[in-house]
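The record is kept unedited without comment:

——
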Amino acid sequence: LPNKMLHHTRNHDSVILENGRKQQLLVNVLGRHNRHVEVMDLMTGEQWARSTQGLDPAGWPLNDLNHVYTVLVNSVKNGTLNGYGHDESGRKKKELWLPCGFKNDRVKMEKSVHYARIVDLETLEIRSGPKLPYSGGACVALSLEIIRGEPPMICTFGGTIDSHESGKFLPYSSCYDRLRERWWFPFGKLPMAFDHGSVAFIPPRRCQENDPGRIIILNFRTESFGTQRSEMMAYDLPGGGWDLEQLQGLDMEESGSWYIYTNVSYGGPTDRANCPRDASGGITANNGRDIVNFGGIYYDFPNGNFRATRFSTIRSFDVCKKTWTVVGDLGVQTFAVQTTASEELQISVTCGGEARNSGYPGMNSPWCIVHRLGSNRPIENRHGAPAIGISESNIWSEIRGRARY
């Protein structure tokens, strides 16, 4: 994009809110060496930002959070189905949940937070969310309809507890029920403890008529600065969801029905298509047929010497053929990014990330890179239905009026 971000960042997350071609708002959320939630209007170039002051119940700053993963939902009013997703005027209210992360910017000084954060997208203010069942940073997360007919829950997978460098990798998953204000554990324990991954929801009947909806977790690591894993973990969603009786009988320590979806062989870091990586961006295309991966980093130890390989590659995984294909290039080798996408404009946007030897503060890139995959891979907005068809209202003027640079 022609304009730099107002605040350089990495280990953050990004969202695009869409109102056709009238409004396309890119939201970048916190990250390393950044205390702001900031917005860029992709149609006009206008930018604004806000930094929230205040502490969570553990006494940690609300705006100090990196290695985040955002979940966009319509807010639940007063914890009931009545009025779900609307404020007093009937307008849908949007909020971003950040169910994991680390505080402290300095490498090797990060500590996992104990409370979720929630961003009100009308004001860009951050408030404290529920206490986490386990304190983890660098998790992956989705909104999922666990109980049919109820608002989607905020579901997290993996992460690292305590220290980014020496903490314990987590094999756990959990889902926050916003109506009952409690955590459930429908997915149980994962086959591997991991962090720094990506997650994708694959709709039913994507490859075969009887295919269930499926969660795929990929591009992760299982030890600090260890070689990234080429396996993909998957969970097939039950067609009818879960009921309360089922949820009450499930425990986070009980192994879930996860399995290895595929394990693609590769020829080291020169294999741009197949080499695994972490801390990379990811979106879906072709109605979930393709998982598209942007940038990332790979660690190995040739002759006992540590080596870090950064990628500029854009590659696509066909979930039916279970093969990777190189489909583009970011033009810069980077990691510690998240990628978002506009369905209307058919563009992916990858902001920030590491800018090695650049002289930028904290080695954070100020740029957002735009890429078009082409008509053979129509892309989806990673944050789903809540991000699409935002109704015109005074929400945008309220954001501008209240936000401060």
